[in-house]
Design a protein that fits this description.
The chain is of the alpha/beta class. The chain has one domain: Rossmann fold (3-Layer(aba) Sandwich). It has five helices and seven strands, in the order E-E-H-E-E-H-E-H-E-H-E-H. The protein has a seven-stranded mixed sheet with strand order 1-3-4-2-5-6-7, with helices on both faces. The longest helix has 17 residues. Bound molecules: guanosine-5'-triphosphate (GTP) and magnesium ion (MG).
Length: about 200
């Protein structure tokens, strides 16, 4: 699929500051350093669209990227920080968590949630909290997709036991056992077509 243009258009910090121009949107959520920005760059064929941060936890806002503006398949990709359950004051964390839950429950243009998990670590405490937010708040009908990132560090192979850990975590949160689990690498572009298969859900009406 061709990405003709992609532009950073907004950094939202609350429901009130989300873009008012409604287009279909997909979001990428995951712990700091899991590879969100790198994956966005990979799927857009860009080098440094989403600034790849060397310092963990830099992105604190929902970063909106508008893809293919002025075409009938325009949509937003949203880079959502898995806010520092570390290094952020408690008040800020709970504000962020309630924004995230409202977003999952109320953003009617949301089509797909991609939840990135590091393939070296499997689901960590913060990932389980994200799954709990999905269970509790995600609007019915929104496609939820797990992405295991940095697979090049595992020679492109993700062990059956890691896949089982993901399946068990999904099961523990009453999330569908049919939730797709994709494997990607931003280094060698593994999994790009599979990600696009779900991105297309946002584009094709
Ligand atoms: P924050 O913006 O801090 O939340 O991080 P992020 O989730 O956007 O991660 P980012 O894309 O900045 O990547 C974090 C680090 O992991 C960088 O040093 C990347 O180069 C590296 N990285 C990301 N994806 C991959 C991958 O697929 N393979 C390898 N080997 N490294 C990766
Ligand atoms: Mg980032």
């Amino acid at each position: 699929t061709l990405v003709r243009s992609v532009d950073f258009v907004a950094g939202a910090v609350s429901m009130e500051t989300l873009p008012t121009r409604m287009l279909p949107e997909v979001c990428f959520i995951g712990r700091s350093n899991v590879g969100k920005s790198s994956l966005l760059n990979m799927v857009c064929n860009r080098k440094d669209l989403a600034y790849v941060s060397k310092r963990p936890g830099k992105t604190q806002q929902f970063n909106y990227f508008l893809v293919n503006d002025k075409t009938k398949s325009a949509f937003y990709m949203v880079d959502v920080p898995g806010v520092g359950y570390a290094k952020v004051p408690l008040a800020e964390k709970s504000k962020w968590a309630s924004f995230f839950e409202s977003y999952l429950a109320q953003r009617s243009s949301l089509k797909v949630v991609f939840h990135l998990i590091d393939s070296r670590h499997g689901p960590l405490a913060q990932d389980l909290m994200t799954m709990e937010a999905m269970r509790a708040s995600l609007r019915p009908g929104v496609q939820y997709v797990i992405i295991l990132t940095k697979a090049d560090k595992k020679d492109g192979k993700v062990s059956p036991s890691l896949k089982q850990q993901v399946a068990d975590a999904l099961d523990a949160h009453q999330l569908k056992e049919t939730t797709p689990v994709l494997v990607t690498s931003a280094v060698n572009r593994l999994g790009r077509d599979e990600v696009w298969r779900y991105l297309r859900l946002a584009v094709i009406k």
